[in-house]
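Quick check before the chapter quiz. The format below is the same one you will see on the exam, so make sure you can read both the input and the output lines.
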Amino acid sequence: MAGGWLAEAAIGGGLITAGFILGLVAGNGSNGAVAGLALYAGWHLRNVLRLGHSLRRDGDTPESLGLWGDLFERLHRARREALAGRRRLAQIVQRFEDSSAALPDAAVVLGDGGRIDWCNEAAERLLGLSTPRDLGQRITNVVRHPDFASYFNGQGARADGVEFLSPVRNDLALHAQLVSFGHGRVLLVVRDITQVQRLEQIRRDFVANASHELRTPLTVVHGFLETLTSDMAAVPQRWQRPLELMNQQTLRMQHIVDDMLILARLEGDGTRGMDSDLDVPTMLQSIRGEALVLSGSHGHRIDLDADPALWLRGNELELRSAFTNLISNAIQHTPDGCVVNIRWRAHGGGALLEVQDHGEGIAPEHLPRLSERFYRVDASRSRALGGTGLGLAIVKHALARHGADLRITSELGQGSTFSCVFPAGLSRRVACATAAAVDPAP
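Here is the expected output.
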């Protein structure tokens, strides 16, 4: 920069001095100095015009002397760096487009108002989007499916995503999920889950068919075993214990088959389970009576605290199965003579069922997996109690069909609480109810 100032001073001073000398020679030094200053101003004007032309046309950077030379040099370097930056950015964008084009999942970048800013080739294949035709369009105007529109407008948890049929092909099942990034931008990721659904359907069909096929021979075997063990005095001593064990295990297998058939029915029926108004307090009173019989000589106390006016819209068989499983589990895992609490009350605009036992409790690492099929915290103890390992899976599926959640809290040595949380809109208030508000065990 110092060199530029020196050169600029030399140019300006040289032109004025030369003009002054020439003016002296012509007889008027002042006029010559003015002429030199005019030349210096014209030189600046020329450089300004050259700069404007270069900026407008984005052409080659001109060359000059003095401060203008420094300015043009800086402009040249800035242009060169910007060009290199644009090339690097273009390479990055090209690599991104190449990699996104190779993805099997559709990716759509959405801007303000859900307008499409960019999409990859998979989005064209799965969603029928086309670039540049659909750029700037609202995604809900292009993907016209009510389930997707509801999910996009905020109905449902964003992390869960939504499943719907492809607008391009009805035989393609898609799963879409929205992910926020940047400032006000959203990434829509859509994957083809057709094969996964087919495999899941094959699994459900296999389980259901195998269960149906096993039910008949198990019934026959159990019937003969019951006949043989009905008069144990007539059975030779050495066969009594084997027959007793065979009878127990056959009965256990029947329970497993029955639970598997219930699960297969819950999974296979795509309709939701809400078909009638249910008198839940009366249902719980009935289940409590059955639980007292199950407890028998173990002497459990079962306290029922139910809001008698709180009913529920749902499927009676499914909810009764879910509630029975929860209460039976509480009985099985509560020490003899201890209490099991059942509470039915309004909660957050919906309804809440809590089943609390006072057993050994469950370690935190087991809680996320309790509703998996055949998962047991203590396998040997569960089998000894006659459990199938499918009860909580049935509960979870039955609640899911009613839009409800299963929540489990537990502390080792303090017992566990299983909560069924029903959403607003399912509960009903009735003027008269038949269930007792508080019905502790005698």
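If your answer matched, good. The radius of gyration is 40 Å.
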